[in-house]
Amino acid sequence: KQPIYTLAIESSCDDTSAAVFKNNKKLSNIIASQAVHEKYGGVVPELASRAHQQNIVPVVDQALSQAKVDRKDLSAIAYTKGPGLLGSLLVGSSFAKSLAMALDIPLIEVHHMQAHILAHFIDDENQKIPQFPFLALTISGGHTQIVKVNDFFDMQVIGETLDDAVGEAFDKCGKMMGLGYPAGPIIDKLAKQGNPERFTFSKPKVSGLDFSFSGLKTAVLYFLQKEKKANPNFVDENIKDICASFQKTVVDILMDKMKIAVKDTGITQIAIGGGVSANSGIRTALKQAEIGLGWQSYVPKFEYCLDNAAMIAIVGYYKFLQQEFADFGSTSKARLKL
Ligand code: KG4
Ligand code: ZN
Q1: Model pLDDT for residues 190-235, shown as the tens digit of each residue
Q2: Per-residue model confidence (pLDDT) at position 38
Q3: Does ipTM top 0.85?
Q4: CATH number corresponding to 5-119+305-321
């Protein structure tokens, strides 16, 4: 049987990425992050599209050369259809369509959040593969969802955020603390050296499996304003404890909902995905739940947590097996249901 060589393109937000897979194995996964957004404290969509245009050709060239795959040997091109920033998505989709057309090979469209979940199926020695059905907690800069995953393409959202995404809460609260962008990894690093019990932030009261993070954001804002009035150096002097306490609150919110989801579904296999799954607090909490609650947890390799094309390639591979190809007239979607 001929191997399937997939070239995958991911350009939904501010990372331009290309990966080459041989079947379900990664040959390369190149990620160009865009430093241009740092000074604005968030992603500037117009600048992101321009940077994607500059990056896309060199990133794809590098992915092919590192994989030692000639473009004429490619079986298909997979790309992110959505959700994401429309201008960013369009750069990836136009490129993917043109190349697939030039090479006369199938085009495969991939849902970004489905890819964060199916990243667990990348055949890599450092990864454990979950069994169906499992629960996925997808936590990123744009999404916070609990998904019941019955099969590769049979997924059901059973809970989601009513307002901000968890990564957004990290980034916005970090900005209030004067941290750089994205603040998630910075908070994580500082939290490791702080006392998580020092400050308490009230948790939102949302019933069922849905989340809310906007109230936490306001609570952090008022807390910082009040403390800074009493001591202008409060943040600098206590940053590690503030980060540790904030992170603990977020992790508790996520874990409380996962406990309800496990109770409701009877499923104890938990997989996490999305940028925030790089967080050490959530990783530790899941490890503790293995011992304390008898869960089996699945955490992707760090490389597959943040936005990357390897996760697009693995979905492309499974869609190729099902011969699920896209029409060249299909369009990118900023909003796209799972
Ligand atoms: O999945 P991703 O790369 O892009 C989106 O699809 O949104 O996720 C990016 C988000 C950002 O909000 C970033 O602050 C957050 O993931 N993040 C983290 C950590 N690493 C990345 N949040 C908390 N702790 C981390 N270690
Ligand atoms: Zn993402």
Answers
A1: 999 999 999 999 999 999 999 999 999 999 999 999 999 999 999 9
A2: 87
A3: yes
A4: 3.30.420.40
Instruction: For residue 42, give the ligand nearest its CA.
Output: 1
Structure tokens at 252: 């508790």
Residues 14-69: tens digit of each pLDDT:
999 999 999 999 999 999 998 889 888 889 999 999 999 999 999 999 999 999 99
CB atoms within 10 A of CB 70: 10
Give distance in angstroms: CA of 143 to centre of ligand 2.
Answer: 8
How far apart are the CA of 203 and the centre of ligand 1, in A?
21
Residue 79 CB-half CA count within 13 A: 30
Report the nearest atom of ligand 1 relative to the CA of 141.
7
CA–CA gap between residue 243 and residue 220 (Å, rounded) = 11
Q: Is 182 in the pocket of ligand 1 (CB under 6 A)?
A: yes
* pTM, rounded to two decimals: 0.95
> Do 130-299 and 5-119+305-321 fall under one CATH topology?
yes
Please give the structure tokens belonging to residue 178: 């004067």
CA-angle at 290, arms to 289 and 295, nearest 5°: 90
DSSP codes joined into one string, 120-140: GGS--TT-PPPPSSEEEEEE-
3-class DSSP state of 163: coil
Between CA 117 and CA 115 the distance in angstroms is: 5
186 annotated as a binding-site residue:
no
Every domain of the chain and the residues it spans: 5-119+305-321, 130-299
State the average pLDDT for the chain. Answer: 96
In the chain, where do the E strands start and end? 5-10, 15-22, 25-33, 76-82, 107-111, 134-139, 144-151, 154-160, 269-273, 296-298
Give the closest residue (by CA) to ligand 1 atom 20.
Answer: 185
Q: How many angstroms does the Cα of residue 252 sit away from the middle of ligand 2?
A: 22
Residue range 130-299 forms a domain whose CATH class is alpha beta
